[in-house]
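Example for tutorial group B:
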């Protein structure tokens, strides 16, 4: 089974880079590590870069880049004799009309909350052509369903659900911090929420982070600072903060914490929460305004997590202090049983097989109709 995996990293990293930029990039890396994959690596060339290089009209640039990238996907799939294309990006450059006409089945996975409802039109076109659509949680599904019903006349599409990661059994290290978090330094993830919410307490906290790609772009080009860059400048000097670690070192550092705080209440699954649990660390979830959080499906036991009302400082402090004398080995073993590599690989293989089967059935029905 040959998989074509288009890959684009916002920091320009290779899929094999020991640093991981985010959840989507982590999933792509795991697919690459566990299956027979041909990676189509794109350089992160922004419209701004292309405009400076060519002077072309920005609308024309967007149209040209979109067409070019889609055609490259189809050409590469032909070249490597791919059985399936696994796409993890919602932009039209990856799942627009050219890709939807592929005679190779496309397994399209949306990992995020895409802000533009036009995404549903792209997904609808893929679905009509017999390709398959996946999200990573029912929490994410409900969010899209609500938005689409509220703002459009479209019908919500039949998305499957996949788990985006698995865990290993990292070393359980002695605790140095009462609580830690992991997240890039932007206004959505807001990792320094942990620092602000525990500022006037005796709790020792750790933030594991990295500059957002837009902040890197601002510093590289001298462009006007955006909200993410202002967030970085405001928070860059907190103590007990570590920056730009390799993935293995991220895990080692979070293993030094007694608890883990998921600061963003709109996670779509929460790979970092699972990685904390794999170190035997109970997690605290900053709930969404409806009282839910996507990551509450990850723990193997209700005793391994707590939800707090959105941004409730007192509730966070109380939750951190409530996890005393936990059996970290038990948390790790139960998490591993639920999220081990073998189970994940079979889960992904089933989704791949279903995608190919659905596409073949669609093609057969289409051929019968034409005949």
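The residue assignment follows.
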């Amino acid at each position: 089974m040959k998989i074509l995996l288009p890959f684009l990293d916002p920091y320009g990293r290779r899929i094999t880079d020991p640093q991981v930029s985010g959840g989507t990039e982590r999933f792509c890396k795991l697919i690459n590590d566990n299956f027979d994959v041909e990676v189509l690596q794109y350089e992160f060339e922004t419209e701004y870069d292309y405009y400076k290089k060519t002077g072309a009209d920005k609308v024309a640039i967007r149209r040209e880049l979109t067409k070019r990238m889609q055609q490259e996907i189809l050409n590469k799939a032909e070249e490597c004799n791919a059985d399936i294309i696994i796409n993890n990006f919602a932009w039209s450059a990856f799942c627009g009309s050219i890709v939807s006409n592929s005679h190779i089945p496309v397994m399209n996975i949306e990992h995020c909350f895409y802000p533009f409802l036009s995404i549903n039109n792209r997904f609808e076109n893929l679905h009509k052509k017999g390709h398959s659509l996946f999200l990573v949680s029912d929490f994410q599904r409900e969010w899209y369903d609500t938005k689409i019903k509220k703002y459009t006349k479209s019908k919500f599409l039949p998305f499957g659900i996949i788990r985006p990661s698995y865990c290993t059994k990292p070393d359980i290290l002695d605790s140095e911090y009462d609580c830690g978090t992991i997240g890039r330094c932007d206004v959505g993830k807001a990792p320094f929420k942990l620092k602000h919410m525990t500022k006037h307490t005796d709790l020792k906290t750790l933030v594991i982070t990295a500059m957002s790609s837009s902040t890197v772009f601002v510093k590289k080009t001298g462009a006007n600072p955006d909200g993410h860059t202002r967030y970085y400048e405001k928070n860059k000097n907190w103590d007990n903060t570590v920056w730009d670690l390799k993935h293995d070192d991220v895990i080692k550092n979070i293993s030094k914490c007694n608890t883990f705080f998921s600061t963003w209440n709109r996670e779509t699954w929460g790979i970092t929460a699972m990685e904390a649990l794999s170190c035997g660390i109970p997690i605290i979830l900053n709930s969404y305004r409806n009282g839910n959080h996507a990551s509450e499906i990850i723990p193997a036991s209700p005793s391994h997590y707590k939800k707090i009302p959105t941004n409730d400082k007192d509730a966070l402090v109380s939750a951190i202090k409530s996890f005393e004398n936990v059996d970290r080995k038990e948390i790790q073993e139960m998490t591993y049983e639920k999220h081990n590599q073998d189970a994940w690989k079979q889960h992904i293989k089933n989704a791949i097989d279903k995608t190919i089967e659905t596409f073949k059935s669609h093609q057969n029905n289409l051929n019968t109709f034409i005949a």
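The chain has a mean pLDDT of 91. Compare this with the pattern of hydrophobic and polar residues in the output above.
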